[in-house]
Design brief:
Strand 13 and strand 14 form a beta hairpin. The strands form four sheets. The chain has a five-stranded mixed beta sheet with strand order 6-9-11-13-14, with no helix packed on it. The protein has a four-stranded parallel beta sheet with strand order 1-3-5-8, with no helix packed on it. The protein is of the alpha/beta class and about 180 residues long. The protein is about 15% helix and about 20% strand. It is built from two helices and 14 strands; from the N terminus they run H-H-E-E-E-E-E-E-E-E-E-E-E-E-E-E. About 30% of the residues are buried.
Length: about 180
């Protein structure tokens, strides 16, 4: 049954207008969410799955309540996304690299390294064109600035940005005036 819904999603629904398009956008969004409920391992009360979001076969993907995937997001099939997560367009989450340990064997012949499951905590905002590399997770309450490259896990309630991403400030601390 999952295969049928994957074919429907990738063959038709992913090409429908954006979730934010006037008049037809909300209908297209609801159709994509309905289809993904039959694909994902766990699908809460999702708010948005925008056009061309890619998640492989979604077999182990878990997404919490009031979360969404932006347009053209590329996420692994086994990611865990918490509740109240806003993901902007063009977010790229990578969970596996090529093996490069041997210098006597060409890198393309060494195969892939181990998969590293990424977790996105609750109440997270991930800006446009963010890249999250294998082994990095996004802690609860974190804001990730647009264009950031997340190479490690930062403390909860951080505002992070840059390449590589670093803590700009903590949301729980009051800025000095």
């Amino acid at each position: 049954m999952r295969t049928l819904f994957l074919a429907l999603y990738y063959g038709l629904l992913t090409h429908l207008p954006s979730s934010y398009a006037p008049v037809v956008g909300p209908v297209c969004n609801r159709l994509r969410i309905w289809c993904c409920r039959h694909i994902f391992a766990r699908c809460g009360r999702v708010t948005t799955i925008d056009r061309k979001a890619y998640f492989g076969n979604g077999s182990a993907l878990e997404i919490g309540d009031f979360s969404g995937l932006g347009a053209r997001c590329d996420i692994p099939r086994d990611i865990r996304i918490g509740s109240h997560v806003m993901m902007a367009k063009d977010v790229l989450i990578i969970n596996q690299n090529h093996e490069t340990s041997s210098t006597t064997v060409p890198m393309d012949m060494q195969g892939a390294g181990p998969r590293q499951v990424c977790t996105i905590g609750d109440d997270v905002w991930i800006g446009a064109r963010v890249t999250i590399v294998p082994g990095a997770c996004v802690s609860s309450g974190t804001i990730v600035a647009a264009g950031a490259v997340v190479t490690r896990t930062h403390p909860p309630y951080s505002i992070i940005g840059g390449n590589p991403a670093r803590v700009i400030r903590n949301r729980k601390e009051q800025p000095s005036t």
